[in-house]
Amino acid sequence: MSVRRPLAASVSTFASTFVCVAVLALCAPMASFAQAPPAASAAPAAPSATAPAEPSASPGKVTEQDFIPSVYTYEVGGRRDPFRSLLVRNPSDKDRVRPPGLAGVMVDELDLQGTIKIKQGWVAMMRGPDNKSHLIRKGTTLFDGEVVEVSATEVTFRQNVNDPTNPKPFREVVKALTLQKKS
172: which of 20, 38, 61, 132 lies 20 to 30 Å off by Cα? Predict the structure, then answer.
């Protein structure tokens, strides 16, 4: 045992010395990549006759001008405004003034009453919140969405939603016909 300890100690000392030399050898060339101090301006402004002459500042001396912050401007470059909330995409639908007619009706307020087949395709009969019937086709714009498709038994809407957790700013809403028994 006593023979192995000096050998282990010498190997350990050799390894630590080798690591230190390797680190120093690798770091020495990187000193040339260090940031150079800012170059002095080529033509310094001439002091005016009324202003007192400032003492020449040595390169390591801190002056009052070092404490004056530089002007920073934010370049938008297609990015979002960092000061706008991510939780609010657009104003609440309840706060907006609704236009009259079908353009002021929300998708959730409509009930499908029936569908009609015409030459151009299907037309849906929808009942609004005011208990009036409206005929809608594909592409009809509502207050919070639009009609994507009208088929024989259902109408598909694309409803705009204000949900910051949802990656899509809309959702698909399908309203289907329900069969009613005659009494």
Answer: 132
Task: Output the pLDDT for position 19.
Answer: 65
Query: How many Å apart are CA 160 and CA 149, to the nearest integer?
Result: 16
109-127 in b/e form (b: 16+ CB < 10 A) is ebebeebeeeeeebbbebe
Dihedral sign computed on CA atoms, order 100, 106, 108, 110: positive
Write out the DSSP string of the chain: -TTHHHHHHHHHHHHHHHHHHHHHHHHHHHGGGSPPPPPPPSSPPPPPSSSPPPPPPPTT---GGGGSPPP-----TTPPPTTS-SS-SS--TTTSPPPSGGGG--GGG-EEEEEEEETTEEEEEEE-TTS-EEEE-TT-B-SSEEEEEE-SSEEEEEEE---TTSSSSEEEEEEE-------
C-alpha 131/C-alpha 175 separation (Å) is 17
Q: Domains for the chain: give ranges and CATH numbers.
A: 59-183 (2.30.30.830)
Say what the pLDDT of residue 54 is: 54
pLDDT digits (tens, 9 = 90+) for 110-147: 999 999 999 999 999 999 999 999 999 999 999 999 99
**Average pLDDT of 8-30?**
60
